[in-house]
Task: structure prediction
Amino acid sequence: MSDNLFDLILLPTWLVPVEPAGVVLIDHGLAIRDGRIARIAPRAQLLALAATDVRELPGMLLAPGLINTHGHAAMSLFRGMADDLPLATWLHEHIWPAEKTWVDSDFVRDGTALAMAEQLKGGITCFSDMYFYPEVVAELVEASGMRAQITIPVLDFPVPGAPDVDEALLHGLPLFETLRNHPRIRMAFGPHAPYTVGDATMLRVRDLAAEFGAGVQMHVHETAGEVEAAVQASGERPLARLARLGMLGPHFQAVHMTQIDDSDIALLQESGAHVLHCPESNLKLASGFCPVEKLWQAGINVAIGTDGAASNNDLDLLGETRTAALLAKAVAGSATALSAHNALRMATLNGARALGMGEEVGSLEEGKAADLVAFDLSGLAQQPLYDPVSQLIYASTRDCVRHAWVAGEQLLDDRRLLRQDEAALLTMSHTWQARLAPAQ
Ligand SMILES: [Zn+2]
Result:
Protein backbone atom coordinates (compact mmCIF):
# COMPACT_ATOMS: atom_id res chain seq x y z
CA MET A 1 0.00 0.00 0.00
CA SER A 2 2.75 2.47 0.95
CA ASP A 3 4.25 2.08 -2.54
CA ASN A 4 1.06 3.52 -3.91
CA LEU A 5 0.82 6.33 -1.41
CA PHE A 6 1.47 9.78 -2.86
CA ASP A 7 2.74 12.68 -0.77
CA LEU A 8 0.56 15.36 -2.30
CA ILE A 9 -2.13 15.70 -4.95
CA LEU A 10 -2.78 19.14 -6.42
CA LEU A 11 -6.05 19.87 -8.19
CA PRO A 12 -5.92 23.24 -9.99
CA THR A 13 -8.52 24.68 -12.35
CA TRP A 14 -5.95 24.74 -15.16
CA LEU A 15 -2.73 22.79 -15.53
CA VAL A 16 -0.22 24.10 -18.09
CA PRO A 17 2.55 21.55 -18.57
CA VAL A 18 4.50 23.68 -21.14
CA GLU A 19 5.58 20.39 -22.71
CA PRO A 20 3.75 19.42 -24.88
CA ALA A 21 3.62 22.98 -26.16
CA GLY A 22 0.46 25.04 -26.15
CA VAL A 23 -1.58 22.67 -23.97
CA VAL A 24 -3.97 23.70 -21.19
CA LEU A 25 -5.38 20.78 -19.21
CA ILE A 26 -8.74 21.32 -17.52
CA ASP A 27 -10.05 19.05 -14.76
CA HIS A 28 -6.58 17.61 -14.36
CA GLY A 29 -4.07 17.59 -11.56
CA LEU A 30 -0.82 16.03 -10.53
CA ALA A 31 0.44 13.74 -7.81
CA ILE A 32 3.84 14.19 -6.15
CA ARG A 33 5.97 11.50 -4.56
CA ASP A 34 9.51 11.88 -3.20
CA GLY A 35 9.81 15.39 -4.62
CA ARG A 36 8.91 14.35 -8.16
CA ILE A 37 5.87 14.56 -10.38
CA ALA A 38 4.64 10.97 -10.19
CA ARG A 39 1.37 11.27 -12.08
CA ILE A 40 -0.48 13.76 -14.25
CA ALA A 41 -4.06 12.65 -14.77
CA PRO A 42 -7.72 13.67 -14.88
CA ARG A 43 -9.10 14.82 -11.55
CA ALA A 44 -11.37 11.81 -11.08
CA GLN A 45 -8.46 9.40 -11.47
CA LEU A 46 -6.31 11.31 -9.01
CA LEU A 47 -9.07 11.41 -6.41
CA ALA A 48 -9.13 7.62 -6.45
CA LEU A 49 -5.45 7.52 -5.38
CA ALA A 50 -4.20 7.36 -1.82
CA ALA A 51 -2.30 10.46 -0.75
CA THR A 52 -1.06 12.02 2.47
CA ASP A 53 -2.44 15.40 1.40
CA VAL A 54 -4.87 16.59 -1.28
CA ARG A 55 -5.18 20.29 -2.12
CA GLU A 56 -7.81 21.94 -4.22
CA LEU A 57 -6.54 25.00 -6.08
CA PRO A 58 -9.75 26.64 -7.37
CA GLY A 59 -9.27 29.52 -9.82
CA MET A 60 -5.59 28.73 -10.06
CA LEU A 61 -3.28 27.88 -12.92
CA LEU A 62 -0.58 25.38 -12.03
CA ALA A 63 2.59 25.78 -14.10
CA PRO A 64 6.29 24.96 -13.86
CA GLY A 65 8.18 27.32 -11.53
CA LEU A 66 9.63 30.33 -13.32
CA ILE A 67 13.36 30.23 -14.06
CA ASN A 68 15.32 33.46 -13.84
CA THR A 69 18.38 32.65 -15.93
CA HIS A 70 20.39 35.79 -15.29
CA GLY A 71 20.89 38.00 -12.27
CA HIS A 72 23.23 39.36 -9.66
CA ALA A 73 21.20 38.55 -6.55
CA ALA A 74 23.03 40.55 -3.89
CA MET A 75 22.76 43.72 -5.99
CA SER A 76 19.22 43.95 -4.62
CA LEU A 77 20.82 46.15 -1.94
CA PHE A 78 21.80 48.63 -4.70
CA ARG A 79 18.24 48.82 -6.02
CA GLY A 80 17.46 52.37 -7.11
CA MET A 81 20.89 53.74 -6.12
CA ALA A 82 21.96 54.86 -9.61
CA ASP A 83 19.21 55.17 -12.18
CA ASP A 84 18.77 56.79 -15.58
CA LEU A 85 22.40 56.39 -16.68
CA PRO A 86 24.05 54.69 -19.67
CA LEU A 87 25.79 51.36 -19.06
CA ALA A 88 29.41 52.61 -19.09
CA THR A 89 28.70 55.53 -16.70
CA TRP A 90 26.52 53.35 -14.50
CA LEU A 91 29.23 50.69 -14.19
CA HIS A 92 32.39 52.81 -13.95
CA GLU A 93 31.12 55.73 -11.87
CA HIS A 94 28.51 54.09 -9.67
CA ILE A 95 28.31 50.32 -9.47
CA TRP A 96 31.99 49.34 -9.45
CA PRO A 97 32.96 52.04 -6.86
CA ALA A 98 29.98 51.08 -4.66
CA GLU A 99 30.95 47.42 -4.89
CA LYS A 100 34.51 48.26 -3.90
CA THR A 101 33.29 50.13 -0.83
CA TRP A 102 30.45 47.92 0.35
CA VAL A 103 30.53 44.40 -0.97
CA ASP A 104 31.79 41.81 1.49
CA SER A 105 30.44 38.44 2.56
CA ASP A 106 27.81 40.08 4.84
CA PHE A 107 26.54 42.23 1.99
CA VAL A 108 26.28 39.18 -0.25
CA ARG A 109 24.55 37.15 2.46
CA ASP A 110 21.92 39.82 3.13
CA GLY A 111 21.43 40.96 -0.46
CA THR A 112 21.04 37.41 -1.73
CA ALA A 113 18.54 36.55 1.01
CA LEU A 114 16.45 39.58 0.02
CA ALA A 115 16.65 38.66 -3.66
CA MET A 116 15.66 35.04 -3.02
CA ALA A 117 12.62 36.11 -1.01
CA GLU A 118 11.51 38.57 -3.68
CA GLN A 119 11.96 36.00 -6.41
CA LEU A 120 10.12 33.20 -4.64
CA LYS A 121 7.17 35.47 -3.89
CA GLY A 122 7.08 36.22 -7.61
CA GLY A 123 6.92 32.57 -8.65
CA ILE A 124 10.62 32.08 -9.40
CA THR A 125 11.70 28.67 -8.11
CA CYS A 126 15.12 28.62 -9.80
CA PHE A 127 17.56 31.45 -10.45
CA SER A 128 21.06 31.92 -11.74
CA ASP A 129 23.52 34.08 -9.86
CA MET A 130 26.61 35.84 -11.12
CA TYR A 131 28.19 37.66 -8.21
CA PHE A 132 30.91 37.55 -5.60
CA TYR A 133 31.39 35.15 -2.66
CA PRO A 134 29.68 32.20 -4.40
CA GLU A 135 30.37 30.04 -1.35
CA VAL A 136 28.08 32.32 0.68
CA VAL A 137 25.38 32.15 -2.02
CA ALA A 138 25.64 28.35 -2.05
CA GLU A 139 24.99 28.21 1.72
CA LEU A 140 21.94 30.41 1.36
CA VAL A 141 20.47 28.47 -1.56
CA GLU A 142 20.99 25.25 0.36
CA ALA A 143 19.10 26.66 3.36
CA SER A 144 16.35 28.27 1.27
CA GLY A 145 15.14 25.15 -0.49
CA MET A 146 15.29 26.97 -3.85
CA ARG A 147 17.07 25.75 -6.97
CA ALA A 148 19.97 27.68 -8.50
CA GLN A 149 22.86 27.86 -10.87
CA ILE A 150 25.70 29.66 -9.07
CA THR A 151 28.55 31.00 -11.15
CA ILE A 152 32.13 31.63 -10.07
CA PRO A 153 32.93 35.26 -10.91
CA VAL A 154 35.87 35.68 -13.28
CA LEU A 155 37.26 39.12 -14.15
CA ASP A 156 40.78 40.22 -15.03
CA PHE A 157 40.86 42.80 -12.26
CA PRO A 158 40.39 42.78 -8.48
CA VAL A 159 36.83 42.17 -7.28
CA PRO A 160 35.30 41.86 -3.81
CA GLY A 161 36.53 38.65 -2.24
CA ALA A 162 39.16 37.94 -4.90
CA PRO A 163 42.13 40.16 -5.81
CA ASP A 164 42.76 38.15 -9.00
CA VAL A 165 41.51 35.24 -11.08
CA ASP A 166 43.69 32.72 -9.19
CA GLU A 167 42.08 33.68 -5.91
CA ALA A 168 38.55 33.61 -7.40
CA LEU A 169 39.16 30.09 -8.69
CA LEU A 170 40.82 29.03 -5.44
CA HIS A 171 37.63 29.89 -3.54
CA GLY A 172 35.26 28.73 -6.24
CA LEU A 173 36.62 25.45 -7.54
CA PRO A 174 36.10 23.40 -4.33
CA LEU A 175 32.37 24.12 -4.69
CA PHE A 176 32.27 22.07 -7.88
CA GLU A 177 33.43 19.07 -5.88
CA THR A 178 31.35 19.56 -2.75
CA LEU A 179 28.15 20.32 -4.69
CA ARG A 180 28.73 17.83 -7.49
CA ASN A 181 25.70 15.72 -6.64
CA HIS A 182 23.58 18.41 -5.03
CA PRO A 183 19.95 17.94 -6.05
CA ARG A 184 19.21 21.67 -6.37
CA ILE A 185 22.50 23.52 -6.98
CA ARG A 186 24.54 23.52 -10.17
CA MET A 187 27.86 25.32 -10.17
CA ALA A 188 29.02 27.14 -13.32
CA PHE A 189 31.53 29.77 -14.44
CA GLY A 190 30.68 33.45 -14.83
CA PRO A 191 33.37 35.22 -16.84
CA HIS A 192 31.91 38.73 -16.74
CA ALA A 193 32.19 39.91 -20.38
CA PRO A 194 34.53 39.75 -23.39
CA TYR A 195 35.89 43.22 -22.51
CA THR A 196 36.78 42.30 -18.90
CA VAL A 197 38.29 38.87 -19.55
CA GLY A 198 41.44 38.37 -21.65
CA ASP A 199 42.31 35.40 -23.84
CA ALA A 200 44.50 33.61 -21.29
CA THR A 201 41.78 33.68 -18.63
CA MET A 202 39.16 32.75 -21.19
CA LEU A 203 41.12 29.60 -22.08
CA ARG A 204 41.42 28.65 -18.43
CA VAL A 205 37.66 28.95 -18.03
CA ARG A 206 37.11 26.93 -21.20
CA ASP A 207 39.28 24.08 -19.93
CA LEU A 208 37.86 24.12 -16.40
CA ALA A 209 34.29 24.12 -17.71
CA ALA A 210 35.12 21.08 -19.86
CA GLU A 211 36.77 19.35 -16.89
CA PHE A 212 33.76 19.86 -14.61
CA GLY A 213 31.08 19.55 -17.30
CA ALA A 214 29.90 22.98 -16.19
CA GLY A 215 28.00 25.83 -17.81
CA VAL A 216 29.59 29.16 -18.71
CA GLN A 217 27.54 32.33 -18.48
CA MET A 218 28.79 35.64 -19.85
CA HIS A 219 27.41 39.07 -20.83
CA VAL A 220 27.96 39.21 -24.61
CA HIS A 221 27.10 41.95 -27.12
CA GLU A 222 25.25 43.96 -24.50
CA THR A 223 25.69 47.26 -26.36
CA ALA A 224 26.65 48.48 -29.82
CA GLY A 225 29.62 50.27 -28.22
CA GLU A 226 31.03 46.98 -26.93
CA VAL A 227 30.94 45.41 -30.39
CA GLU A 228 32.32 48.54 -32.13
CA ALA A 229 35.23 48.87 -29.69
CA ALA A 230 36.19 45.22 -30.18
CA VAL A 231 35.98 45.47 -33.96
CA GLN A 232 38.08 48.64 -33.97
CA ALA A 233 40.72 47.12 -31.69
CA SER A 234 40.98 43.67 -33.25
CA GLY A 235 38.80 43.52 -36.34
CA GLU A 236 36.79 40.79 -34.65
CA ARG A 237 33.29 40.76 -33.14
CA PRO A 238 33.27 39.52 -29.52
CA LEU A 239 31.15 36.43 -30.27
CA ALA A 240 33.51 35.50 -33.12
CA ARG A 241 36.43 35.81 -30.72
CA LEU A 242 34.68 33.51 -28.23
CA ALA A 243 34.07 30.99 -31.01
CA ARG A 244 37.74 31.14 -32.08
CA LEU A 245 38.80 30.52 -28.47
CA GLY A 246 36.56 27.46 -28.29
CA MET A 247 34.28 28.96 -25.65
CA LEU A 248 30.96 28.30 -27.39
CA GLY A 249 28.90 25.12 -27.10
CA PRO A 250 25.61 23.86 -25.62
CA HIS A 251 26.99 24.78 -22.18
CA PHE A 252 27.47 28.46 -23.14
CA GLN A 253 24.92 31.03 -22.00
CA ALA A 254 25.20 34.39 -23.79
CA VAL A 255 23.45 37.11 -21.80
CA HIS A 256 21.86 40.08 -23.63
CA MET A 257 22.93 39.71 -27.29
CA THR A 258 21.30 42.96 -28.36
CA GLN A 259 23.67 43.28 -31.32
CA ILE A 260 23.23 40.37 -33.69
CA ASP A 261 24.11 39.95 -37.35
CA ASP A 262 23.86 36.88 -39.57
CA SER A 263 27.37 35.71 -38.64
CA ASP A 264 26.38 35.75 -34.96
CA ILE A 265 23.24 33.72 -35.68
CA ALA A 266 25.30 31.16 -37.58
CA LEU A 267 27.73 30.85 -34.64
CA LEU A 268 24.89 30.38 -32.17
CA GLN A 269 23.27 27.77 -34.42
CA GLU A 270 26.48 25.81 -35.01
CA SER A 271 27.49 25.81 -31.35
CA GLY A 272 24.11 25.22 -29.72
CA ALA A 273 24.78 28.14 -27.35
CA HIS A 274 21.83 29.75 -25.55
CA VAL A 275 20.73 33.38 -25.44
CA LEU A 276 19.54 34.82 -22.14
CA HIS A 277 17.31 37.77 -22.91
CA CYS A 278 17.01 40.54 -20.27
CA PRO A 279 14.66 43.04 -21.93
CA GLU A 280 14.02 45.42 -19.05
CA SER A 281 17.70 45.86 -18.22
CA ASN A 282 18.38 46.48 -21.93
CA LEU A 283 15.54 49.00 -22.08
CA LYS A 284 16.56 50.84 -18.91
CA LEU A 285 20.22 51.12 -19.90
CA ALA A 286 19.21 51.85 -23.53
CA SER A 287 21.49 49.00 -24.56
CA GLY A 288 19.51 47.82 -27.59
CA PHE A 289 17.02 45.12 -28.53
CA CYS A 290 17.57 41.39 -28.73
CA PRO A 291 15.77 40.09 -31.85
CA VAL A 292 13.99 37.28 -30.02
CA GLU A 293 11.66 36.20 -32.83
CA LYS A 294 14.52 36.00 -35.32
CA LEU A 295 16.54 33.83 -32.92
CA TRP A 296 13.51 31.68 -32.15
CA GLN A 297 12.87 31.12 -35.87
CA ALA A 298 16.56 30.22 -36.30
CA GLY A 299 16.10 27.43 -33.76
CA ILE A 300 18.23 29.08 -31.06
CA ASN A 301 17.16 28.51 -27.47
CA VAL A 302 16.18 31.86 -25.93
CA ALA A 303 15.51 32.07 -22.19
CA ILE A 304 14.79 35.05 -19.99
CA GLY A 305 16.41 36.84 -17.06
CA THR A 306 15.81 39.91 -14.95
CA ASP A 307 19.48 40.92 -14.59
CA GLY A 308 20.35 42.54 -11.25
CA ALA A 309 18.01 44.76 -9.25
CA ALA A 310 20.42 47.68 -9.75
CA SER A 311 19.57 47.79 -13.46
CA ASN A 312 15.96 46.66 -13.75
CA ASN A 313 14.93 47.39 -10.84
CA ASP A 314 12.81 44.42 -9.85
CA LEU A 315 13.35 40.66 -9.92
CA ASP A 316 9.95 40.05 -11.46
CA LEU A 317 10.17 37.34 -14.10
CA LEU A 318 6.44 37.35 -14.87
CA GLY A 319 6.64 41.09 -15.59
CA GLU A 320 9.84 40.53 -17.55
CA THR A 321 8.08 37.88 -19.64
CA ARG A 322 5.27 40.26 -20.47
CA THR A 323 7.81 42.89 -21.51
CA ALA A 324 9.62 40.29 -23.61
CA ALA A 325 6.40 39.25 -25.35
CA LEU A 326 5.48 42.85 -26.16
CA LEU A 327 8.99 43.87 -27.18
CA ALA A 328 9.45 40.83 -29.42
CA LYS A 329 6.45 41.94 -31.45
CA ALA A 330 7.69 45.53 -31.73
CA VAL A 331 11.22 44.46 -32.74
CA ALA A 332 9.92 41.89 -35.27
CA GLY A 333 7.32 44.33 -36.60
CA SER A 334 4.79 41.53 -36.24
CA ALA A 335 1.97 41.02 -33.74
CA THR A 336 2.27 37.27 -34.23
CA ALA A 337 5.81 37.16 -32.80
CA LEU A 338 6.32 35.35 -29.47
CA SER A 339 2.85 34.12 -28.47
CA ALA A 340 1.76 33.99 -24.83
CA HIS A 341 2.42 30.24 -24.73
CA ASN A 342 5.90 30.68 -26.19
CA ALA A 343 6.63 33.49 -23.74
CA LEU A 344 5.75 31.17 -20.84
CA ARG A 345 7.93 28.48 -22.41
CA MET A 346 10.80 30.96 -22.55
CA ALA A 347 10.38 31.66 -18.81
CA THR A 348 10.32 27.96 -17.88
CA LEU A 349 11.55 25.13 -20.14
CA ASN A 350 13.89 27.24 -22.25
CA GLY A 351 15.43 28.55 -19.03
CA ALA A 352 15.91 25.05 -17.68
CA ARG A 353 17.59 23.96 -20.91
CA ALA A 354 19.88 26.98 -20.94
CA LEU A 355 21.05 26.18 -17.41
CA GLY A 356 21.60 22.49 -18.21
CA MET A 357 18.57 21.48 -16.12
CA GLY A 358 16.20 20.60 -18.94
CA GLU A 359 15.92 16.96 -17.92
CA GLU A 360 15.12 17.90 -14.33
CA VAL A 361 12.75 20.90 -14.39
CA GLY A 362 11.09 23.48 -16.68
CA SER A 363 7.93 21.56 -17.55
CA LEU A 364 5.32 19.45 -15.80
CA GLU A 365 6.15 15.93 -16.89
CA GLU A 366 6.08 12.70 -14.96
CA GLY A 367 9.51 11.97 -13.53
CA LYS A 368 10.65 15.59 -13.35
CA ALA A 369 11.23 17.40 -10.05
CA ALA A 370 8.07 19.00 -8.67
CA ASP A 371 9.02 22.67 -9.08
CA LEU A 372 5.62 24.33 -9.36
CA VAL A 373 3.80 27.61 -9.09
CA ALA A 374 0.09 28.20 -8.54
CA PHE A 375 -1.05 31.50 -10.08
CA ASP A 376 -4.39 32.80 -8.84
CA LEU A 377 -6.42 34.02 -11.82
CA SER A 378 -9.67 34.59 -9.92
CA GLY A 379 -9.25 38.37 -9.50
CA LEU A 380 -11.32 41.07 -11.16
CA ALA A 381 -8.43 42.07 -13.41
CA GLN A 382 -8.42 38.63 -15.01
CA GLN A 383 -12.17 38.48 -15.82
CA PRO A 384 -13.69 37.42 -18.04
CA LEU A 385 -11.28 34.60 -18.70
CA TYR A 386 -11.24 32.98 -22.12
CA ASP A 387 -7.61 31.88 -22.26
CA PRO A 388 -5.73 31.35 -18.96
CA VAL A 389 -2.22 31.58 -20.48
CA SER A 390 -3.07 34.81 -22.26
CA GLN A 391 -4.44 36.13 -18.98
CA LEU A 392 -1.30 35.08 -17.11
CA ILE A 393 1.13 36.72 -19.54
CA TYR A 394 -0.81 39.82 -20.62
CA ALA A 395 -3.16 40.62 -17.74
CA SER A 396 -1.52 39.43 -14.52
CA THR A 397 1.21 40.66 -12.20
CA ARG A 398 3.35 38.66 -9.84
CA ASP A 399 0.88 39.49 -7.08
CA CYS A 400 -1.18 36.58 -8.42
CA VAL A 401 1.44 34.06 -7.27
CA ARG A 402 -0.17 32.14 -4.38
CA HIS A 403 1.90 29.00 -3.81
CA ALA A 404 5.27 27.63 -4.88
CA TRP A 405 7.00 24.29 -4.46
CA VAL A 406 10.57 23.20 -5.19
CA ALA A 407 11.33 19.49 -5.44
CA GLY A 408 7.93 18.85 -3.91
CA GLU A 409 8.50 20.99 -0.84
CA GLN A 410 6.20 23.95 -0.44
CA LEU A 411 8.23 27.14 0.06
CA LEU A 412 5.43 29.68 -0.47
CA ASP A 413 1.98 29.15 1.02
CA ASP A 414 -0.77 31.67 0.32
CA ARG A 415 1.89 34.33 -0.46
CA ARG A 416 3.74 33.58 2.79
CA LEU A 417 7.38 32.45 2.77
CA LEU A 418 7.75 29.27 4.78
CA ARG A 419 11.54 29.20 5.16
CA GLN A 420 12.34 32.92 5.40
CA ASP A 421 11.32 35.62 7.89
CA GLU A 422 9.94 38.60 5.98
CA ALA A 423 10.01 40.96 8.98
CA ALA A 424 13.68 40.18 9.55
CA LEU A 425 14.43 40.80 5.86
CA LEU A 426 12.76 44.21 6.04
CA THR A 427 14.76 45.18 9.14
CA MET A 428 17.97 44.02 7.47
CA SER A 429 17.18 46.02 4.31
CA HIS A 430 16.54 49.17 6.33
CA THR A 431 19.88 48.75 8.09
CA TRP A 432 21.70 48.59 4.75
CA GLN A 433 19.72 51.55 3.46
CA ALA A 434 20.83 53.64 6.44
CA ARG A 435 24.43 52.59 5.88
CA LEU A 436 24.52 53.17 2.11
CA ALA A 437 22.30 56.26 1.83
CA PRO A 438 24.89 58.82 3.10
CA ALA A 439 27.15 57.78 0.23
CA GLN A 440 24.57 59.00 -2.27
ZN1 LIG B 1 24.05 41.08 -15.77
Observations:
- The radius of gyration is 21 Å.
- The first strand starts at residue 6 and ends at 15.
- The pocket of zinc ion is lined by residues 70, 72, 219, 255, 307-308 (CB under 6 Å).
